[in-house]
Design a protein that fits this description.
The complex is a heterodimer of chains A (186) and B (183). With 186 residues, chain A is mainly alpha-helical. In chain A, 72% of the residues lie in helices and 0% in strands. Chain A starts with a helix and ends in a 5-residue tail after the last helix. The chains are: A mainly alpha (186), B alpha+beta (183).
């Protein structure tokens, strides 16, 4: 565990402490600023929908705040783990059709800070088109089949007549090349 | 690894480890957002039908299932087909039947009406047992093109670099859309 992570955990622990003692409107704002992007990414990955990811972020942050205000998080340095666990539970609940959001919003929503929208990197589509066209044929096929068609490595491998690990190598190379072509740090 | 995570292609233990890391590393979160943006950009590009590339049957089925309009031509090997595109078309697909069973590398050459090669897609993906190569022509290019004839040629390349023709396919394009370039 590196110094930076230790520092973040200390800061997380301090946030937890301040929120728990009821002295931290600023600490609550910092919690939202810090954790909302992480929760939203988790939501994007599992729910595949930006609006749903925003809803999840709000729901998880509200539930976390509820727990912190009540002093229910015993190990303050485990805030990130606690929130990840909350994300997992809520996505499971979501999938089961459970709707805690409305109740929590009614209970805590009046004075809640809304999670700030998280900016996704914007892409120059014309440049991306040029970059995609510069890929080798197999790389282009892998990228399109992967990201448009969301085909598994096994499906792509079958189409290309190569092994699954080979598909991952081709995909990795293609993404690296696209990022470099787009001027994104490779 | 982040691309595999986004694609849900990791084992559960790997996925859990990455998620724990993402909850404490904003730099990796930023990189994941880049992957997501790239994935979205590629998806958008693919849906526009403007890439020149070899595609799979699954791809053609997917775009059709999305409600996009696919125009497909399959000239016989050594033969030709009359073709056009309309304003409503979203995708233009050419299907080239060929015996690919003995091929290890195949190039797709795009030629003019006289058969003179203009450019080629080297080392295209193909299934040896598939019996065909399916390729997508940029739809907006086709919509803007004037009436003309294009020859697609498939060649196999052996390990010594020798070319062997697998087939030629002639597309006789008649422009039916009004606008610049219409006769």
């Amino acid at each position: 565990m590196d110094v930076e992570q230790n520092q973040a955990e200390l800061e997380d622990a301090e946030l937890v402490r301040r929120i728990g003692t009821g002295s931290g409107r600023e600490a609550e704002a910092e919690l939202f600023r810090r954790m909302a992007p992480r929760v939203r990414l988790y939501g994007l990955r599992h729910l595949r929908d930006e609006a749903a990811a925003e809803d999840l972020a709000q729901q998880v942050l509200i539930a976390t705040l509820e727990s912190l205000r009540a002093g229910r998080l015993r190990e303050a340095e485990k805030l990130a783990s606690f929130m990840l666990g909350t994300c997992r539970m809520m996505v499971l609940d979501w999938r089961r059709g459970a709707q805690r959001k409305q109740r929590l919003l009614e209970q805590f929503g009046a004075d809640m800070l809304a999670p700030a929208p998280i900016a996704m990197p914007s892409l120059d589509q014309a440049q991306l088109a040029r970059c995609v066209q510069t890929l080798k044929e197999r790389e282009r096929a892998v990228v399109v089949m992967t990201f448009y068609d969301e085909q598994t490595a096994a499906d792509v491998a079958q189409f290309l007549g190569v092994s699954e690990p080979n598909v991952r190598v081709i995909r990795h190379r293609a993404i690296h090349q696209l990022r470099a072509c787009m001027g994104v740090e490779a | 690894m982040l691309a595999d995570y986004w694609l849900a292609a990791l084992a559960q233990s790997e996925e859990e480890a990455i998620e724990a890391h993402l909850f404490s590393c904003d730099e990796c979160g930023r990189r994941l957002r880049e992957v997501i943006a790239l994935a979205g950009g590629v998806r958008q590009l693919a849906r526009q039908g403007d890439l020149l590339m070899v595609v799979s049957d699954a791809f053609v089925k997917r775009v059709a299932a999305e409600g996009l309009r696919v125009r497909e031509y399959a000239p016989p090997r050594g033969g030709d087909v009359q073709c056009t595109v309309s304003a409503e078309d979203d995708f233009l697909i050419g299907r080239l039947g060929a015996d690919l069973t003995a091929a290890t590398r195949v190039d797709l050459c795009i030629c003019d009406r006289r058969g003179v090669e203009q450019f080629r897609l080297p080392d295209i993906p193909f299934g040896p047992a598939s019996g065909s190569v399916v390729f997508q022509q940029p739809i907006n290019y086709a919509k803007a093109a004037s009436s003309d004839t294009m020859v697609a040629r498939l060649v196999s390349i052996d390990e010594a670099g020798r070319e062997r023709p697998l087939g030629e396919y002639t597309f006789i394009h008649t422009r039916t859309m009004p606008g610049p370039g219409a006769s």
